[in-house]
């Protein structure tokens, strides 16, 4: 048993797991509260919120991003979902990533998303939006990677690291659209192994999107290296 598992076991003994939604012991998300988180019923361009076909970036916004889609799984205004995301990122409840990944998987399967875009385990790879090494050291894990790994495992797709975060950017929370763009400008670089995936479709995973600045900057780096089939997938979208 690794140190992390031992630590989690001890913490579970001292502080038993409680449902984020109702406080019931035993789980971070009980079945009843899980059913209160509905996946989105409307597809829209996540950059302008106009209705779009299966979450495609609309023609008017395509000039501003290299992304083909930003799929948004659920409504950020759902208080249980907000608490789950907060618990994962700021209370370091790593196990919550599995619950969030299961929500993503339900969305993908209910709408048959991958089939709509001819995404298969042979022609695609899953990539998490990276954290800077200082933030990764502080948190102990990258929440986007955890969710991405669960999705990759379920669909039997490769999980790969194609992007590094060079700048330790300030949090995007509280910044307006222009400041968000400036904050992440030139924040990312390509990993050394990117050339192995030039013919692959890239599924880029993040937890929350607001204006799409971070995802767009990641996609710009990938496109500059010849990776052009880039799709983004997030748990929820926070209001701008």
UniProtKB/TrEMBL annotation:
Q: Name one Pfam family in it.
A: Pribosyltran
This protein's name: Phosphoribosyltransferase domain-containing protein
Instruction: State the family it belongs to.
Output: Belongs to the ComF/GntX family.
Q: Which PANTHER family match?
A: DNA UTILIZATION PROTEIN YHGH (PTHR47505)
InterPro entries from the entry? Answer: ComF/GntX_DNA_util-trans, DZR_2, PRTase-like, PRTase_dom
Domain (Double zinc ribbon) spans: 10-62
What the entry lists under CDD domains is as follows: PRTases_typeI (cd06223)
All copies of the Phosphoribosyltransferase domain together span 147-234
């Amino acid at each position: 048993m690794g140190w992390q598992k031992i630590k989690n076991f001890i913490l579970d003994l001292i502080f038993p797991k409680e449902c984020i939604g109702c406080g019931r012991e035993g789980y971070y998300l009980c079945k009843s509260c899980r059913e209160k988180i509905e996946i989105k019923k409307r597809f829209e361009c996540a950059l302008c919120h106009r209705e779009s076909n299966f979450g495609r970036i609309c023609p008017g916004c395509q000039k501003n991003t290299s992304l083909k889609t930003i799929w948004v799984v659920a409504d950020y205004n759902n208080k249980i979902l907000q608490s789950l995301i907060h618990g994962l990122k700021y209370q370091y409840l790593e196990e919550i990533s599995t619950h969030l990944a299961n929500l993503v998987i339900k969305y993908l399967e209910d709408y048959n998303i991958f089939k709509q875009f001819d995404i298969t385990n042979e022609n695609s790879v899953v990539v998490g939006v990276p954290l800077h090494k200082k933030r990764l050291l502080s948190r102990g894990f990258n929440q986007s990677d955890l969710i991405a790994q669960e999705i990759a495992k379920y669909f039997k797709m490769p999980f790969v690291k194609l992007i590094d975060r060079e700048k330790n950017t300030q949090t995007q929370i509280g910044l307006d659209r222009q400041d968000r763009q400036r904050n992440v400008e030139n924040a990312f670089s390509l990993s050394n192994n990117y050339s192995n995936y030039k013919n692959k479709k890239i599924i880029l995973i993040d937890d929350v999107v607001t204006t799409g600045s971070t995802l767009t900057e990641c996609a710009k780096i990938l496109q500059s290296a010849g990776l052009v089939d880039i799709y983004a997938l997030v748990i929820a979208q926070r209001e701008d």
